[in-house]
Design brief:
By secondary structure, the chain is an all-alpha fold. It contains 10 helices and no strands. Helix 4 packs parallel to helix 7. The chain is globular.
Amino acid sequence: MTEGRRRSRLETVCGAASLLLPLSLFMWTGAPSPSWGDSGELLATGFVFGSAHPPGHPVSITFFKLLSLLPFGSLAFRGSLASALAAALTSFILFRISLVTARSLDQKAPRWMAPIFGLLGGVFLSSTPALWSGATQSGAHSLQLALEALCFFSLFHFALGERGARDGRHLTAATLAFGLALSNHHFSALLLLPGIILLLTEDAMK
């Protein structure tokens, strides 16, 4: 097996692990019934496809509604599954950010280090109390974090491209993710603006 194929296989295995390991952890420790905070409200609102307290969390409500149509598990389980999927996706996005960052650097470190440390970063993030608690119950914050991470990843990927040869799909994905995040929880999404402005400003000055 060539070096390139071994590296590709390692990246695939580590990428799958960065998604499936956190998801397994979140599902194993997920709340079996409505938990504290907004959990019960968001479950009920998602079930009837209504509107929660301001700002309404329309993206999370739609996501909960889709998961509520699954033919297995209690409503609380399906709500926890929605949060677990979103949080696990955040772990995978962090893994991808690690790979893109490593490829953009002129480094002498072995190529196998990037996927391994990307996987460790995703697992460590998933084990933090803030993310873990939000991923095991119905709530809007896990999906919000996934959307914001996707926005940052897509914009970062776009900025790393060579001028004149950049893939506009990355910018489109960043715009879509930011729009969804803004509609789901506007205050949290607005916290991204300083980073977005800094990234684009530095890129324009190169």
